[in-house]
Amino acid sequence: MFIRLHFLFFVFLLPLGCEKQPAKVNKQSPQKVRIAKVIEINLGGKLEFPGVIRAKNQSRLSFATGGRLISQDLGLGDHVKKGDLIARLDANGFSIGVQAAGAAYRARKEQRDQLARDLQRSKKLLKQGALTRVNFEKIESALNQAESGLQASKQALRESKRKRGETRLLAPFDGVVTSLYAEAGEVISPGHPVLRLVGEDIKEVRIEVSQSMASQISIEDKVSMYTNEGVQVDAKVNAVLASVTNERGLHPIVLDLPKNSKIAEGSDVTIRIHTSPQKQTLAPLGAVVDPSGQSPFVWKVSEGKVRKVPVKLGELFEGKVSLRGIEVGADIVVAGQGRLLENDEVSQE
């Protein structure tokens, strides 16, 4: 009996002695990374760009209508004034059209005037009872139709004169002839260029810059231009276009030279724009993950843990990049990002 109780007591205690102890979890040590701070600097002073001088006014002149070119006596280098006759087309066919339209207009006008006199007499006869209302309204309706026909013929006459006028090509501005595309005697089609006219009084340079550079340039900025021969001329910023006009995402800047500047059109120049200092937020380029992708970001370190922060990239400055979306003074990871996940613990190497 004693032996049975002792055995049962042993069996009862056996599970208590065999309970599993909690497994020890090894805490993962912080990942070693390199950390740098986001800084702020003042940028500005001088920006340099290449450019080419071009005339502000320049055009390939052409006729809006086609025909035989009967007059074009200008040569390369000839100067013209605004409104000067440059070239003429054979206008005989158009002159005949003007004559026919004029005859039609005069006939319509005579008809309208006669009906107007008839209506005035009809009003008296209607009052005297010598004319019925039906006949009076017929005369009134005929006059309205004649008036509409007169206006249509007047418009046709105006249009035929306009077409005849298009056989004369006039200079739209003062300038010099730089190219010839047609000679007297040729039959040309509408829009075919006759010559290229370049204005001499106002010249400009157009450049294209990134958004961050465009934000540094204003209308008041001073501009100096230098030719390959060392000639310097001061210019001014005429326009800084906020809208992007090309697929590369660049913004056009228009620079005006002084009136009657002696630098020839087509000259290569170096442009120096003196800008006002502006604050820029910078970080090492290596801190940006996926810089050329759709969603670049940096790993921000706070209280020993990392958090993904989306950023927008600007210009490069000696190994650093301008950022938007991260505050100045923030700690960011610049090396070792490849193995990081959100809220991972990190420490400086």
What does this structure look like?
There is one protein chain. The protein is α+β, with helices and mostly antiparallel strands and 349 residues long. It folds into 4 domains: 31-42 and 279-348, conserved putative lor/sdh protein from methanococcus maripaludis s2 fold, CATH 2.40.420.20; 47-56 and 202-276, Efflux pump adaptor protein, beta barrel domain (Elongation Factor Tu (Ef-tu), domain 3), CATH 2.40.30; 60-89 and 168-198, RNA polymerase II/Efflux pump adaptor protein, barrel-sandwich hybrid domain (OB fold (Dihydrolipoamide Acetyltransferase, E2P)); 92-165, Helix Hairpins, CATH 1.10.287. 26% of the residues lie in helices and 36% in strands. The protein has helices spanning 2-17, 92-128, 133-165, 211-214, and strands spanning 31-37, 39-43, 47-52, 54-55, 58-62, 67-71, 79-80, 85-89, 168-170, 175-180, 187-188, 193-198, 203-209, 222-227, 232-240, 251-256, 268-274, 278-284, 297-302, 305-310, 312-317, 320-324, 331-335, 346-348. The strands form 5 sheets. The chain has a 7-stranded antiparallel β-sheet with strand order 3-17-14-15-16-13-4. The protein has a 5-stranded mixed β-sheet with strand order 20-19-23-1-24, with no helix packed on it. Helix 2 packs antiparallel against helix 3. It is elongated, with a radius of gyration of 43 Å.
Radius of gyration: 43 Å
Low-pLDDT runs: 1-19
- Bulk shape: elongated
Distinct helical segment count: 4
CATH class of the largest domain: Mainly Beta
How do the SSEs run, as a string of H and E?
HEEEEEEEEHHEEEEEHEEEEEEEEEEE
Structural class: alpha+beta
Tally the structural domains: 4
β-strand amount: 35-45%
Mean pLDDT: 84
- Assign a percent range to the helix content: 25-40%
Q: Work out the number of β strands.
A: 24
Strand order of the largest sheet: 3-17-14-15-16-13-4
For the record, give the distance between the C-alpha atoms at the N and C termini, rounded to a whole number: 72 Å
- Examine the secondary-structure arrangement and name the CATH architecture of the largest domain: Beta Barrel
CATH superfamily of the largest domain: Efflux pump adaptor protein, beta barrel domain
- The biggest beta sheet, please? 7 strands, antiparallel
